Amino acid sequence: MSIRVAVVNPPFMEGKFSRTSRSPAINKSGTLYWPFWLAYATGALERAGTEVRLLDCPATGTSEGDLQRALLDFRPRMVVLDTSTPSIYSDLRIASACKSVLPEAVVVLVGTHVSALPELCLRLAPSVDCVAVAEYDATLVDIARALEGERRLDDIPGLVLNLEGELVRTPERQPIADLDSLPLLADVYRRHLEPENYFFAAARYPSVMTITSRGCPFRCSFCVWPQVMHKGKYRARSAENVVEEFRRFAESFPQVQEVVVEDDTFATGSKRVEEVSEALIRAGNRLPWTANVRANLSLEAMRKMKKAACRLIIVGYESGSQEILDRVGKGTTVEQNLEFAERARKAGLLVHGCFMAGNPGETPATLRQTLRMAKRLSPDTAQFFPIMAYPGTRLYDEFKNEGLLRTESFDRWVTEEGLHNCVVDLPELPADELVRWCDMARREFYLRPSYLVYKALQSLRHPLTEGRRTLRAFATFRRYLFRRP
Fold first, then answer.
1. What confidence category does residue 237 fall into, taking pLDDT thresholds of 50, 70 and 90?
2. pLDDT, tens digit (0-9, with 9 covering 90-100), for 15-49
3. Are residues 184 and 150 located together in one domain of the fold?
4. Are 342 and 463 members of one domain?
5. CATH number assigned to the domain comprising residue 337
6. Of 153, 285, 319, 484, which sits with the fewest C-beta atoms within 10 Å of its C-beta?
7. Claim to verify: residue 60 and residue 193 sit in the same structural domain
8. Could you tell me if 313 and 238 lie in one domain?
9. pLDDT at position 38, please?
10. What does pLDDT average to over the chain?
11. Do residues 101 and 72 make contact, with C-beta atoms less than 8 angstroms apart?
């Protein structure tokens, strides 16, 4: 194929808006995710023979005006724009502007929000051509082929099309079964992106992000990517494929200090973790890495991860209340969380703990349980987020059906600064109180004397790695940590 395609992560709020995050926002820690889903699509399009330009506007500080000028210079036949819930109105406006300046181009929307609400989004932006629903790698390749005259757009599965004002949904596309068939992100990144433009507060800088699986076999009601984009279907790359990508990361980006494995659940169980770790050990991997895991991970798997150069594991503890964990379908117990933390200490792995405020059944008493649990678990770092329910999830439907959503104006999912916000008013906890609690919990966790001493000693022992990471994150985080409501 000879057509040109622009794949765009559009600007939003003139800030480092992390659209690829599970909870898109401008992060208080300064974290900015790599656009790995767009990168996968870029690689698939390049493999099919198209000329692709991947434009990550938040990472490069590209303004709307700069984006339009870049598109006019490139003259793509197709423009693909990522979306998210809090940025959707801006995303639709930018997509419409792209269609205005490039009327012959096919403008395609992708991402969680438009996959959950494709018809609504196309009605709000009637000049936009279509939405590629859920996983879109193969869908975009098919669109490119259609533009070459090889097939009709309405024959392509996985689309909602705007055909002269009539919205037409084509048959559902099945998720890609063989993830090893996809291009390696390391190769796409090398051609299009710079590691220095991205930051993950829990990892050493600069870091890169990869995905070694798609979907999740577990049933958490709040998790948006498995429900909306992957339809609950879990698939994993082979250990050999993962090892090859690590090798190419090290080869292509010698400045990179860490690989962040950003799977929704890298550790669905201990067996695959051990297989990947053993393959990395055999390959002599020395590149540190971080991964999202579950609290059922065995000590043996953790020790193999450590031997394979894993530095830190990220776990969704979520709540100190067993009732809350059960209500959201987490599938773990408070006792498991405590045992997990002890195993991680024995294995010598750092832990980043994730906690949520505002799930169904939350009360002031359960929030107190969560903060006590966070201090008792004492992870290396912790995040406290107010609940953010996204369209397409069971949690969003539950809150909407019970009349607990303060608004359905999606730009309210972030504050005027672009920070995480909450629009869920629980019977005993209005949204504002949930946000205040997270700020309070964050201060209490990080400003404990014992934690400050721990971090000081850690930074003295490892000044060029852990010390540098802590100082870089704190430089951004401090303005929020000490802010009082």
1. very high
2. 899 999 999 999 988 899 999 999 999 999 999 99
3. no
4. yes
5. 3.20.20.70
6. 484
7. no
8. yes
9. 98
10. 94
11. yes
